[in-house]
Every structure is written in structure tokens, then in C-alpha cells.
Design goal:
single chain; Amidase signature (AS) enzymes; 12-stranded mixed beta sheet; two-stranded antiparallel sheet; 38% helix; 15% strand; AS_sf; catalytic activity; Amidase; Amidase_dom
């Protein structure tokens, strides 16, 4: 069993663990298992031990929040000496001259960056496969690990690393976290450096415990106070298991997870009652337009001829939307007014994270655009609207399917600035209903 990030950091700070040995053991686990899991696009097998030695020699070692902790970073992150591929063979492959904000904050906190995790091309899809590999769900490798932070989720759920960085544009942290039985937090859009897609994409943590998620969030946001998980006062929780606007059927076990969580939170003193926001029909257009136009804007630096055919179609659609001027702030504002109305009467909304079970693992990048769109929209009915609103949301594991053995989860959403509240509620669920930290292990 892999120690938690908090445990590793505390032992390194106390002098009981050597960061180099921790890193070598991590690389050994990756070498042994990643041929099946497919979590990594690039493993930093030579660089990471050298950087761990640098951490061990730091004079401020005793104060580093992530002292010696091996962390996987999503392949959208600028790391000195590496290039971020964004899951594509069409982009530039020139190594970065210096760390970007995310890598710099991780290093400053004492983390050891052990590798770049697999993502779908331009991070568009909730399944993370590329021509050289498929990120698979460690609970059952015949299923996809999700996306676009699927490689990060697979790495953590398989016990290869205790923590991973991800980014979330329409659910890209929360969906793979739900599929792989992890805590995955999408912060509010005002907390971390913007990740793109016209403000919809943000960076965040994937972890096996709430405390580890809070720890990584505090480092990514450069706000140490976020590492402290509070015990929340009683709050008003609205509950909904109906897919917004589409009303498509949700599998019974995913609905049952919400009922289970509602009972646990009510027992902790919170008020839980069924009620959903009034979702405006224009919300779907606002999300879809940004989902297409964001990658199209990013693709200006890529050679379109080398894109996968699904990506070429997606980029063409995005360019048409951009030319038509359909990225409209008023669409977002209309949804925000409805969200503010809801959260005037509720402190938290609870839903399933997934609106359907994960898809099977496979070479989705070889299929047509529509063959990817249909299962993608089927999975993500509860997540993307909170990217459009910029509200924080967290995925929390609840149980496992009696049929497939795959994890079940809930999503908790709150108003801007409420990340600590979400972590506190997640910690109450964790205490009342402990989950297996990694696949197949207690």
C-alpha cells in the first residue's frame, strides 16, 4: 500500500524517509504496472531521482508541505527540459526552457515530478488514449480511466503515485476521479491560474484521501490555509439525480450513491432535500461552444494535418463557432443568475458525478468525431455546467457497483470561494464511509 502524500511528507521532514529512495520505489512501481495501466506518456526515470536528491539537500526541507512526495503531472504542464504534448503528435515538441506556474509551485513545495500523464488530443474527450497507449481503469482495465485527466487518475488509483495534478474543462478531473474511485476537486475559476477554454478550464488535484487533495490544492493555489480541512457547520444541501435539461436515465447504482451520501450527511447534522437549479436551455450552447472553440483556439500552434480525424472535425466546428461570434458572455451570465438564485437558498448541490457508466477502454482516437461525441455527452451530464459558471465542485467516492465492481461517487458543488466547505463535507463522508484508497486494496 502506498503511503499518503501527507504521510510521506511528514516522514521526509522528520528525517525518517529519504526522498531519493521514495522516488526510486515509485519508479519501480511505475515500471512494473504502467504497461497495463497506461497512465504515463513520459516517465522521468533519470531526472526524478536527481531532483529528489536536490530536495533532500534543501535547507528548508523541514518546512516543505510536499517534501519528497512523488507527483504526476498532466501532460499540459510546462516543465523545464520537457515538452507538453497535450496528447497530440501535431504540436511543437521543443522542451520548455523553464517551469510553468504549476510545476514551479510543486517544486517550491518539495514535490518530485515523476512523469507526465496521458491525455486525449487537446484534452477534448473523457477517455485518455493516444496512438502509443491507453489509460485504463485500475479497477477493471477493460474500462477507460476517463479523461481528460485519465492518466493522472489511473496513476493514483493504481497506487503508482500518491498524488496527481489534473485540469478540468467540462469535468476532466471529476469524471476520471469518479471512474477510478478518487477524490477530485475542480476549484472555482478565481482560485488558480486559468487553464484555457475561455475561462472554463482550471487546474486541480486528484488524490486517494481528502487530506491529500487539500494539501495539493493548497500548493497549486499557493494558499497554505487550504491544507486545513475544516469541520463544517450544518449547511443546506439540495439534491438532484436528474440530468440537467436532457433528463436522460441515470443508472440505478449511481443514483443510489447520492441517496447513500444524503443519509450520511443528514446524520452529520446537515439539511438535505431534493431540489435542482433552474437550468436555462442556453447553458448547453454556452458549454458546447466553448468546448469546441477552446481547442480550436489552442490549435493555432499545431499542424492541423497531423491531427486525429476526430480532432480535425472538432477544430473545424470550433472555428465556425468563433467566426459566428457564439462565445457570448451573456449566455454565461444568464446561467450565473440562475445559479446565484439556487445558492441563495442552498449552500451545496449534490448530484451523481457520472450520468452513465464509463466506456470500455480502446482506441477511441481512431474513431470518428460523432462516435466520440455521443458517449462523451452521455457521461458528462452533471459536470460541465459548473465549469461554465466557474463554481467549485468535488467528486467523492461512495461505494462500488455490485455488478461491475466499478466505483460510485457523488459530486458536491458550492458557490465561489467554497473549496474548504467542499473538502470539509467530503471529509465527513470519508470518515463515515471509508473507501478503498487504491484499486483492489483496503
Amino acid at each position: 500500500m502506498v503511503s499518503t502524500a501527507a504521510e510521506i511528507a511528514a516522514s521526509v521532514r522528520a528525517g525518517d524517509l529519504d526522498p531519493v529512495q521514495v522516488t526510486r520505489e515509485t519508479l519501480e512501481r511505475i515500471a512494473a504496472a504502467d504497461g497495463v495501466v497506461g497512465a504515463f506518456r513520459k516517465v522521468r526515470a533519470e531526472e526524478a531521482p536527481a531532483e529528489a536528491a536536490e530536495v533532500a539537500a534543501r535547507p528548508d526541507l523541514a518546512s516543505l508541505p510536499l517534501a519528497g512526495v512523488p507527483v504526476a503531472v498532466k501532460d499540459v504542464t510546462e516543465i523545464a527540459g520537457e515538452f507538453a504534448s497535450h496528447g497530440s503528435q501535431a504540436g511543437p515538441s521543443v522542451p520548455a526552457a523553464e517551469d510553468g506556474v504549476i510545476a514551479a509551485r510543486l517544486r517550491a513545495a518539495g514535490a518530485v515530478l515523476v512523469g507526465l500523464t496521458r491525455v486525449p488530443e487537446l484534452c477534448v474527450w473523457p477517455m485518455s488514449d493516444t496512438p502509443d497507449g491507453i489509460a485504463r481503469n485500475p479497477w477493471d482495465p477493460t474500462y477507460a480511466a476517463g479523461g481528460s485527466s485519465g492518466g493522472s487518475a489511473a496513476a493514483v488509483a493504481a497506487g503508482l503515485v500518491p498524488l496527481a495534478h489534473g485540469s478540468d474543462g467540462l469535468g476532466s478531473i471529476r469524471l476520471p476521479a469518479a471512474m477510478c474511485g478518487l477524490v477530485g476537486l475542480k476549484p472555482g475559476s478565481d482560485l488558480l491560474p486559468e487553464g484555457g477554454w475561455f475561462g472554463m478550464s482550471v487546474h486541480g488535484p486528484l488524490a486517494t484521501t481528502v487530506a491529500d487533495a487539500a494539501l495539493l490544492l493548497s500548493v497549486l493555489a499557493d494558499r497554505p490555509s487550504l491544507a486545513e480541512v475544516p469541520v463544517p457547520s450544518p449547511v443546506r444541501i439540495g439534491m438532484s439525480t436528474t440530468v440537467p435539461l436532457l433528463h436522460t436515465p441515470v443508472p440505478k447504482e449511481l443514483v443510489a450513491a447520492v441517496s447513500r451520501a444524503a443519509g450520511l450527511l443528514a446524520a452529520a447534522g446537515h439539511t438535505v432535500a431534493p431540489e435542482a437549479p433552474r437550468y436555462p436551455a442556453t447553458m448547453v450552447l454556452g458549454m458546447t461552444a466553448r468546448w469546441c472553440a477552446g481547442p480550436a483556439q489552442q490549435a493555432r500552434d499545431f499542424d492541423v494535418r497531423h491531427f486525429q480525424r476526430r480532432t480535425r472535425a472538432h477544430v473545424r466546428a470550433g472555428r465556425l463557432l468563433l467566426r459566428a461570434g457564439l462565445i457570448r458572455e451573456q449566455t454565461r451570465q444568464r446561467w450565473l443568475s440562475r445559479a446565484e438564485e439556487y445558492f441563495a437558498a442552498h449552500d451545496v448541490l449534490m448530484t451523481p458525478t457520472l450520468s452513465h457508466w464509463p466506456v470500455k477502454a480502446g482506441r477511441w482516437h481512431e474513431r470518428r468525431w460523432l462516435s466520440n461525441v455521443l458517449p462523451s455527452t452521455r457521461l458528462a451530464g452533471f459536470t460541465g455546467q459548473w465549469n461554465l459558471a466557474g463554481y467549485p465542485a468535488i467528486t467523492v467516492p461512495i461505494g462500488r457497483s455490485a455488478v461491475s465492481g466499478l466505483p460510485t461517487s457523488v459530486q458536491l458543488v458550492t458557490r465561489p470561494g467554497g473549496e474548504s466547505l467542499l473538502l470539509g463535507l467530503a471529509a465527513q463522508l470519508e470518515s463515515a464511509n471509508p473507501w478503498p484508497r487504491t484499486a483492489g486494496k483496503p
